[in-house]
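re: that chain from earlier
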Amino acid sequence: MNWKPELDELARREAFAKEMGGADKVKRQHDQGRLTVRERIDGLLDAKTFHEVGAVSGIAEYEVNGDLKSLTPANCVFGRGKIDGRPVVVVGDDFTVRGGSADASISAKPLMAEEMAHDFRLPIVRVIEGSGGGGSVKTIETRSAANLPGGVGGTRWYSFTTGNLAHVPVVGLGLGSVAGLGAARLAASHYSVMTKNSAMFVAGPPVVARLGQSLDKHELGGWQIQTKAGGVDHAVDTEEEAFACARRFLSYLPSSVYDLPPTIKSDDDPERADEALMNVVPRSRRQIYKMRPIIESVVDKGSFFEMSQNYGRSVIAGFARLEGRAVLLLASDPYIYGGSWTADACQKVIKYVDLAETFHLPVVYLMDCPGFMIGLDAEKAATIKYGVRAMAAVNQSTVPWCTVIVRNAFGVAGVVHQPANKYSMRYAWPSAYWGSLPLEGGIEAAYRADIDAADDPKAKMAEIEERLNRLRSPFRSAEKFWVEEIIDPRKTRSLLCEFARLAEPLRTPGPTRLAMRP
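^ sequence. v structure.
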């Protein structure tokens, strides 16, 4: 006698699980241009590495004699797998089973996925569609009672949804209409990606219509809205692109805060000098230039991975490598408000400085910041409030910093270019230009009496500007040791690679003092 009958029963139940919501629901998913949850997991992970947990959980129907008639699986699929050979946890919503809502969910499954990631110190990728196991008004009827949000046991799920941000890399993929708890799970990630035919919202169009707002799902929460608002970091055309983004994001990070970011082999010469850097910044301060080619020139070729490109656009943020060592890179974008920090840009700085601090990434900042954004809209957005929060995030960071002042450094925002209470490396290009505030506008305020008394006010103002500009030479600042080194722009890569080498032994694994929040 052996256990073959039981194993046959197990195989039959697993076969039911792999049918998901049934052939008609799977066809509908495909007809709408979306993959099923199992196809998504296969596309995300290294081939044949998925080890599913709880595959046979669900709602069973039995014959009169007690034999299994059918099994409708739970609308959550999770388990372990590998990405680029490194173990991860993946948890996905099965929209073919009741649209991923609470009616067909078993709350222990997504909670167990989060617990596994936390306790085994593994990254977690959330593949989200629908409400992500959240509520449905139909739940009242199916369970004969209304759920109390965060009721018995529920608070643990919500706690892990945000709490894991302080412990392991968290990626969220929005691959359909994502609402309610699903939207919260997508937003509560270090990096989130949605496909351009997807949408995310707290409540969908039928609910919002009760407010008198008649909007379709894309008007309410499409990719252009969410990436600009910062609700989602990136949007792509296909699900396969979303999987590639998730894999690349994780390649820069350790598996948990208890490890250090991986270093890879690089064939890019650390002494490579780009002659184009000699001409990239115009002599006229009224002319703008492109920062991204500078980034590509100084980091390892092809290593820059930008995030949140549509949000807080005057600040560029992403990962990069220097001699194969991962760093968090911040840079100004002179094309957007001249590089001024808006309220959104300040919040973007906070997020990525916290991300660097959480996962022990040195920070490189290529700076051209004329100050905080000014004007009525800036005041309405409480720019200064978020600016000082950004200052606090930078000052509280303990990871090594290296700043290269490419052009402007002015005002309070100019102060926020390195932590205040520790040594950081700082270089300036010959094009650097700084002070309490830019001369434009400041001359009229400071020298109003002289200008008004002059026979030719415009000529007088030009004379004062020329005089002050001579005094603002970066070499004069270097005389007083207000800037440590003025460098040939072509040496930037060499110095940044040296910084990454010197920073490597200074990184200390373990939890950070200030836990990262969404």
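The longest strand covers residues 170-179.
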